[in-house]
Amino acid sequence: MLEKLYIQNYAIIDEIAIVFSDKLNIITGETGAGKSILMGALSLILGERADTSVLMSADKKCFIEGFFNISHKQEVKAFLAANELDHDDELVVRRDIAANGKSRAFINDTPATLQQLKELAGLLVDLHQQFDTLELGDAGFQREVLDALSGNQDKLDAYHLVYTEWHQTKKALEALQLQKSNFNKELDYFQFLYDELKEAAFTPNELEDLDAELQMLSNAELIKTSLTKAVYDLKESEQPIVQTLKQMVIQLHHFAGMHKDIAAIAERLQSAQIEIADIASDIENMNDDVHFDEKRIELINDRLSIGYKMFKKHGVATTDELLTIQAGLQEKLQAVLHIDEAIIAREAMVKELMQKAGDLADAISAARQAQATPLVNEVNNLLQQVGMPNARLKVEIKSTSLQPYGKDAIEFLFDANKSNRFEPLRKVASGGELSRLMLCIKSLVAKSIDLPTLIFDEIDTGISGEAARQVGIILKELANSRQVICITHQPQIAGKANTHFFVYKEIKGDQVKTNIRILTQDERINAIAQMLSGERPTAAALENAREMIMN
After folding, report:
1. Which ranges carry the RecF/RecN/SMC N-terminal domain (predicted)?
2. 517/500 Cα distance (integer angstroms)
3. Which of 45, 74, 437, 451 is the most exposed place for a label (fewest CB within 10 A)?
């Protein structure tokens, strides 16, 4: 519920704070006193756009803050959690509008977007203003009304799960069918590429190894000459390195006892001599293996030619990349072989889920059909009570294909004058008619779902007397279980208030400003009497006002 509304520097409001009760809050005041300005300010924290024209003083910002009790509003808490916003039992929504027109929004002191504000507002407040036809004429709202009265929520939850799974499975089936179609177009090409690679029969890193071998074979004579010279220098020259090192070791060993470091040097030279001797043997063996082989070179060149052609065709640079492409082609060819089986299995799943969703949709439709007539009868009776004796509502339900909320297209039709020409609400109902019709419908729906704070701006347009009294009764009943805020000019409605606010203008300095205050019991009697008979109420009007409040 809306506990408090604080407004500063908005239109002709300097600064006011309004503390609302949790039941029926009535706002009255003379025409032009600023009642609708309050609703304009409230709409800003509900996500409406604003400009600098709303500033009372251009040298300071406009500031509007709403305090809401959300202790029992799980949907609101879920929204806050989903948007990573802090939440407790109290929620504070704030809107700042600077003199340059820049606007900022905050939810519990955390910056928020206007879209977040609008989504949150729908969970906190239901603001119905005169000529506001969007919600009542919306097919989604009309469906929700029927579902609320039909007790369809559990069925809808079950249906939505099955519908979502059916929809996803159907999309997966369509993807498989498209994949098969694309495969069929490219199957021959895939097969050709795969056969070509399979015939080449490359092994991991083969082409890189062949390239290295070709380099060796192409330079075999130079390599062999170099290796032969290395062996000669190490073992066979007039002063072979291995023999020279050996003699050094022998000479140094004679003096090992005469100097403390000679023995270590001799050991190191001996290790070097042994290592170089091993190297000489390895070079000798390597030299035996190196030889020019023209046939091998020709074979390698042919193999590399095939490989480089594959590199260019597939846009790769290594043997392993070619093998990866070959494996991928094999998977695609295998997929073609198995895709028909997958399609058959998926078709069976789609058929089964569609049948299950259809059965649930039938149950939902039956509940809606069963509730349509009682809804029409109750609304039409209420319309007579609120001063619309010739108005009639009609609910049209047409069967459609499966949709996210069942298989019904629901339309509320309206005839204001017993003409038997029913038209969609959004086309024919006037602002005043819509306001009262909305009140009638919401008074019925409120028994079935947890509506947010209900705000009605001048719902009494075009009514008086008994009709206005009946509107007051309905509002009072609504307020027994939820917060209702209503701006009215009718004394019959004002008399039902739990808390009565009076909006008035006052002159401060050289400026006219709007203010608001809660009326005491005696002030209420006087205000309602003035609504009945004028600025100076008669004794009869005062007595009548007292009776309205007491009853």
Report:
1. 1-506
2. 8
3. 74
